[in-house]
C-alpha cells in the first residue's frame, strides 16, 4: 500500500503493509524473497514495484490489475509514538489478486517456498474464495515439510464483527506451522489476557511453534520463556514494529539460529524500527541499535 506518514507540518509518501514490511526486512537480510500481490497500471503502482525491486524483492509474482490501483493509508502518531491508521483500501488491486491473469503460475511458484508468510490482514482483504485458495497453498507448503508463518494482525475495521474474524483466524492457525501472534491483538479479538492463554489456543489448533509478541515486555517463546528486548526505548513511531520483529526472527531462524537467538534478533530489528519514522525506514544499521 501507499503510505502517508507525518513529516513535520506535511506528509511523506512511502509504502508499507504488514507482510510487505516483513518481506523487505527478509530481502535486506539477504534472503531470496518474493512477494505475491497485485498492483495497477498507474504511475504509483509502477513506482511501488520499482522501489520493491530496489530493495531486493523478487517482483515476478506481482500481478497486474487493469482497473484498480494500490490501497492508501495514513499513519498518525501520538507523543508516545503509538500509531493510528486511516485507510483508503476498499477497492485496492490486492483484494482481487486471485482473479488476475497469472495467479495459477504464481501459486505454483509460491508452493515451492521454504517459508510462506501471511497475516490476518491478508485474509481480511480477500474474498472467501481467495482465502481458501491461500489455505490450500499453505497446506501444500506445510506438506512439503516447509515453514508456514501466520501473523494474527487484527484490525477491527477490516472485519464485520469479532465472530467472523475469530473464525478465519482459527482457520489460518490450523494451516500454519509457525505462529507470531501479538498479545494486544489476541486480547482485543478473543479476550485472552496472557501469553500462555494465547500460545495454548494456537497450539491446540495445530500450530507447532508459537511466539507471542508483547511489545516492550518482550516475547514468549514456545517453551514458555519470556525474553525481554535488550534495552528500554522511547519510541518515535511504532508502526511496523511487529513486522520488523517477524523479519528479524525469520531471517535468524532461516540461518540456523536458536529460538532464543532468533527472538533477540527480532527484538533488535523491532527496536531499531520504532526509533525511526515510517513502517519501512532506511536499511537497518546494527551498530546503531545497541
Task: List its salient traits.
4-stranded mixed sheet; UDP-N-acetylmuramoyl-L-alanine:D-glutamate ligase; 13 strands; 290 residues; 40% helix; disordered C terminus; 10 helices
Describe the overall structure.
- By secondary structure, this protein is of the alpha/beta class.
- The chain has one domain: Ribokinase (UDP-N-acetylmuramoyl-L-alanine:D-glutamate ligase, 3-Layer(aba) Sandwich).
- The chain contains ten helices and 13 strands.
- The strands form four sheets. It has a four-stranded mixed β-sheet with strand order 2-1-5-6, with no helix packed on it.
The amount of helix comes to 25-40%
Question: Do you know the CATH topology?
Answer: UDP-N-acetylmuramoyl-L-alanine:D-glutamate ligase
> If classified by CATH, what would the architecture be?
3-Layer(aba) Sandwich
CATH class: Alpha Beta
CATH superfamily: Ribokinase
* Number of contiguous helices: 10
From the helix content, strand content and strand pairing, which structural class follows? alpha/beta
Major beta sheet, specifics?
A: 4 strands, mixed
- Outline the low-pLDDT stretches: 286-290
Q: Give the distance, in angstroms, between the N- and C-terminal Cα atoms.
A: 31 Å
Question: Judging from the principal axes of the Cα atoms, what is the shape?
Answer: globular
Mean pLDDT: 93
Task: Report the C-alpha radius of gyration, rounded.
Answer: 18 Å
Approximately what portion of the residues adopt beta-strand conformation?
A: 15-25%
- Give the count of structural domains: 1
- The total strand number stands at 13
Instruction: Give me the side-by-side strand order of the main sheet.
Output: 2-1-5-6
Instruction: Write down the secondary-structure element order.
Output: EEHEHEEEHEHHEHEHHEEEEHH
Amino acid at each position: 500500500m501507499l503510505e502517508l506518514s507525518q513529516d513535520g507540518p506535511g506528509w511523506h509518501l512511502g509504502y508499507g503493509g504488514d507482510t510487505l514490511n516483513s518481506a523487505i526486512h527478509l530481502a535486506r537480510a539477504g534472503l531470496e524473497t518474493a512477494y505475491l500481490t497485485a498492483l495497477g497500471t498507474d504511475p504509483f503502482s509502477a513506482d511501488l514495484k520499482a522501489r520493491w525491486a530496489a530493495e531486493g524483492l523478487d517482483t515476478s509474482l506481482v500481478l497486474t490489475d487493469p482497473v484498480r490501483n494500490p490501497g492508501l493509508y495514513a499513519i498518525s502518531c501520538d507523543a508516545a509514538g503509538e500509531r493510528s491508521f486511516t485507510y483508503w483500501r476498499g477497492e485496492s488491486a490486492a483484494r482481487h489478486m486471485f482473479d488476475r491473469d497469472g495467479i495459477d503460475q504464481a501459486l505454483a511458484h509460491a508452493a515451492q517456498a521454504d517459508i510462506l508468510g501471511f497475516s490476518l490482514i491478508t485474509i481480511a482483504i480477500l474474498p472467501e474464495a481467495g482465502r481458501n485458495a491461500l489455505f490450500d497453498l499453505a497446506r501444500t507448503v506445510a506438506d512439503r515439510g516447509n515453514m508456514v508463518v501466520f501473523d494474527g494482525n487484527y484490525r477491527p475495521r477490516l472485519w464485520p464483527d469479532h465472530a467472523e474474524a475469530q473464525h478465519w483466524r482459527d482457520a489460518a492457525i490450523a494451516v500454519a506451522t509457525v505462529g507470531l501472534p501479538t498479545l494486544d491483538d489476541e486480547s482485543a479479538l478473543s479476550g485472552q489476557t496472557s501469553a500462555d492463554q494465547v500460545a495454548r489456543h494456537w497450539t491446540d489448533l495445530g500450530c507447532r511453534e508459537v511466539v507471542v509478541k508483547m511489545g516492550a515486555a518482550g516475547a514468549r517463546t514456545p517453551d514458555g520463556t519470556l525474553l525481554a528486548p535488550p534495552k528500554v526505548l522511547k519510541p518515535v513511531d511504532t508502526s511496523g514494529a511487529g513486522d520488523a520483529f517477524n523479519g528479524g526472527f525469520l531471517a535468524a531462524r532461516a540461518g540456523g539460529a536458536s529460538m532464543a537467538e532468533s527472538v533477540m534478533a527480532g527484538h533488535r530489528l523491532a527496536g531499531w524500527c520504532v526509533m525511526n519514522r515510517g513502517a519501512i525506514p532506511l536499511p537497518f544499521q546494527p551498530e546503531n541499535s545497541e
